[in-house]
Amino acid sequence: MTEKADGKARIVRLGQILRIFMEKEKVSSTWLSRQFQTTPRTIQRDLLLLKKSGFPLHEIRKGIYQLHKDLVRNLEVFDDTELALVVALKNIVGQLGRPFQTAAGNILDHLYDCVKSMPVFVKIDDAVPLDSALLNRILQAILKKRTVSFQYAAPHGSHAVNLEPYRVVYFSGFWYLIGNEPSTGILKRYALDKIENFKSSRQCFTAIPSDLDDVLRQSANIWFTEDANIEITVHIDARVSDYFKRRKMYPTQEIKEERPDGSLVVTFRVGNYEAIRDILKSWIPHFVILEPEDFRVSMLNDIKGWVEKQEQQSCLDNISF
Q1: Boundaries of each WYL domain copy (predicted)?
Q2: What is the pTM of this model?
């Protein structure tokens, strides 16, 4: 790893360590060493840098540390990346002397107040808990273009996976590892919380596909493919058409026709039906699938199956009375 990349990784780790101290009453340096897959000496240097940067971190007994949270204002409003930046800034101004430390402290206090009083609220769904140590190992494998292996806890049983790792992505509250399966040449996706026994090999792969990020940007969920060669045409009722005019419900959405009654004919280009299935279900009963027919039949069967389950449950409820 280059000196620049090593420095960046350290700053990110410092932000994550600070987050851990904010969430826990006390933390051992040994536990941090295992968590971040690094040496105890490296962790000791990290903790010393945090203290020198002005964070009220104290060793309450040998190897056990505590952050005096009453002396730290509102750091919980920042995410890990922002915390890493706060650490870097405090470290830099600390080297410039007391006047700069005081000025920086005042600016950070002002930022805390602004963030807490911000008149904008954005609701982001909670994500599946992320194993930061696993994430760091995956990111290192991607950066070094190393093939990896792991056990994957699939619904029908655990199985071994060999993969060229390309990207870690976040969709709808879940984290995934995206990569190529060398044995089939198929682009696969794996939920990070189901990955076990992750190992990085010494074998390298050539390159990450240059169009992968474009493919990800053109998807609204994890059901993406490199070729969005299926076109789905839908008639949208006038009662909800305004939503589709104001916002694309799927990145490839196109309005083909606005009818006099206010309804719309809309198309979506997808790589497979799963990419759009649940999105359309959320708009029942305000749309009709015009084509392709096999997708219309598939959606209809889904809905019929759901109706049958509801009817069966109603019968059971009546019997219980």
Answers
A1: 134-198
A2: 0.54
Say if domain 3-116 classifies as CATH 3.30.56.10.
Answer: no
At 239 the pLDDT is 95
Say what percent of the chain tops pLDDT 90. Answer: 37
Contact (CB, 8 A) for 192 and 175? yes
Whether residue 118 has pLDDT greater than 60: no
Degrees to nearest 5, angle at CA 81 with 211 and 189: 35
Joined tokens for residue 176:
């995934």
What the block records as the tokens of 242 is 């305004």
CA distances to 31, 35, 64 from 26, rounded to whole Å, are 11, 15, 7
Could you give the dihedral angle defined by the CA atoms of residues 132, 137, 142 and 146, in that order, rounded to the nearest 10 degrees?
-170
- Please give the Cα distance from 75 to 313 (Å, whole number): 49
Amino acid code (one letter) for 224: F
Note the pLDDT of residue 132.
77
Asked if 15 contacts 80 with a C-beta cutoff of 8 angstroms, the reply is yes
Say whether domain 230-309 belongs to CATH 3.30.70.920. Answer: yes
Q: Which of 52, 130, 122, 58 is nearest to 87 (CA)?
A: 52
Q: For residue 19, give the amino acid letter.
A: R
Q: Name the nearest CA neighbour of 90 among 49, 60, 126.
A: 49
Distance between CA atoms of 8 and 143, rounded to whole angstroms? Answer: 13
**Which strands make up the sheet holding 27-28, listed edge to edge?**
27-28, 64-67, 57-61
> CATH number for the 132-208 domain, one of 2.30.30, 1.20.1270, 2.60.40, 1.25.40?
2.30.30
Residue 285 scores a pLDDT above 90 = yes
